[in-house]
Amino acid sequence: MADTHIAGPESLETSGNGGFAMPGMANPPLAARGSGQALSQVQPQRERASDPAWKDYQTVFTNAKAGMEGVDKARVQQIVWEMSKDSAHFKNEQRKQASVQERIERMKSQAAAITPAELAAAGRLLDARIASCEARRDLTRTWLHVDMDCFYAAVHEREQPELKRLQVAVGGMGMICTANYVARRFDVRSAMPAFIGKRLCPKLVFIKPDFAKYTAAAEVVRGALRQVITRFLSQARGGRGRAAAAEEE
């Protein structure tokens, strides 16, 4: 069997949402010009001056996520705002947002000053760069990514099926590692402070993390992958995960 590469989480025991990525399906296309995604909070302009301040507040805790269809976003937005507005983190985010807004205004002024000739020249340079990148693309390998959805919670639900009917979060009263789909209906999610999760979902049940169980479950998945793929990488999502060298049979 020809080598197939898989890029994914190596230490699933360090990630609430495990994931495997496999080199082996077509390489992703080049990003479109100007594409990008803001990871920090975004503060849109208030629709009306009379609108409450919380309507401007957008964070990772108010973004859409799988299992959160039908969530009352306005309610979540207001609760997160009220429980965060006096914190040092919130005030620091406000300072950062003000700095970002100033930078945006400077960039808009610079963009407005660009002449049509300068824009056309920049476009030609960019097209040449894209053509060069396309010429070097390696299409001989495929990448397949396998994600272990709400991994920590799924491991506990496998041992205790009754948890599937409850609003469950893995973690302690400090930080939530992950939440099952029942809890996600209340917008409870990973990396959310537990006190906010409890406010959103008063019946939230907390399960203490068990990393030995997660490691064992992750190895079961890796074992299955080894049966069909000669090479793969496993890497946990999140800051504590680490990349592993490719494993070969």
UniProtKB/TrEMBL annotation:
Gene Ontology CC terms: nucleus
Domain of life of the native organism: Eukaryota
GO molecular function: DNA-directed DNA polymerase activity
Protein name as it appears in the record: UmuC domain-containing protein
One Pfam family of this chain: IMS
UmuC domain location: 143-249
Region Disordered: start-end pairs: 1-53
One GO BP annotation of this record: error-prone translesion synthesis
Protein source organism: Chlamydomonas incerta
